[in-house]
Design brief:
single chain; alpha/beta; two-stranded antiparallel sheet; 8-stranded parallel beta sheet
Length: about 290
């Protein structure tokens, strides 16, 4: 295993470049957000976005990241399996998977949030996700990059949805981007969270590594979705979740990809405080791998 960090989280600490930020927190790997306009954050000053719309552009980006000593661990897609123009959406996703392969990524993060999801029954959300994933997987059979559906949002954290997608796909390239905090954010009691981690561990291909520090009286009760998240989101070492247990289950399942830091408590700090928090996150995660 190795430790990475989301580029957006890193850059929220006020660094002038990804290189500066990674050096400051002691890491060298990032998950890069990939836009529908084929843009991705570059490594240089101000981390100017570059467009990866051709093999030559991808090769140049790869060379620049390599020269800066930065590993692109994963691409992060904010896709929508219920998009109005689904064909265009799936073609963009397909090209993103191919670009991830050229960059040597260990996974592509797939979003479970979709338009109108609250009005759709679980079975329909599963079907839309599976239909879309099958098209992308079938179009990229010549690439080995795993696709990790994240437990994300008000509907995507539902275990019935996640289990339905995994069962219907039955494809070794399709697994989970397990966000360690999102089911807790969703309202799941802490002990039940651990049960889910253990069950899902064999399907994890990528992670978002974060935690929450709820008052003790609220940890084992069923809470409303997003309850006081802005107040209680925490750095990794200060959260309720025993992340070492999760890493143990992942290791037992044969997982060898990244623990990707996604500290969403940073908004409560100034830039100096954000840097200190990310250093603590990185040290904590590095000690687990």
């Amino acid at each position: 295993m190795f430790v990475s960090i989301r580029d957006d989280i890193l850059m929220s600490a006020g660094f002038s470049s990804m290189k500066e930020g990674l050096d400051a927190v002691g890491l060298n790997a990032v998950e890069v957000a990939f836009g529908r306009d084929f843009t991705a954050r570059g490594p240089g000053a101000d981390s100017t976005y570059v467009t990866l719309d051709s093999p030559g552009a991808v090769a140049m980006y790869d060379e620049r990241m390599d020269a800066a000593g930065i590993r692109v661990a994963a691409l992060m897609l904010g896709n929508n399996f219920n998009a109005p123009d689904l064909d265009t959406e799936l073609e963009w996703m397909t090209q993103a998977v191919r670009i991830a392969h050229r960059l040597g990524c260990v996974a592509v993060r797939i979003d479970s949030i979709m338009t109108g999801e609250r009005e759709l029954p679980v079975a329909e959300r599963v079907k839309r996700t599976v239909d879309g994933l099958r098209q992308v997987v079938n179009a990229t059979r010549d690439t080995p990059v795993p696709l990790g559906v994240e437990n994300h949002g008000s509907c995507g954290n539902d275990p019935a949805y996640l289990e339905g997608v995994l069962e219907a796909m039955g494809d070794p390239r399709v697994g989970l981007t397990l966000d360690t905090g999102n089911m807790y954010w969703w309202g799941m009691p802490l002990s039940e969270l651990y049960e889910r981690y253990r069950r899902f561990a064999p399907h994890v291909v990528h992670t978002h590594f974060k935690s929450i520090n709820f008052p003790e009286a609220d940890r084992e009760r069923r809470r409303e979705i997003g309850w006081k998240y802005g107040e209680y989101a925490s750095t990794l070492p200060d959260g309720d979740i025993e992340l070492a247990r999760m890493v143990g289950w992942l290791r037992e399942a044969g997982y060898d990809n990244d623990l990707c830091i996604e500290d969403e408590s940073l908004g409560r700090h100034d830039d100096a405080g954000k840097v200190r928090a990310l250093r603590r996150d990185a040290d904590y995660a590095l000690a687990l791998v």
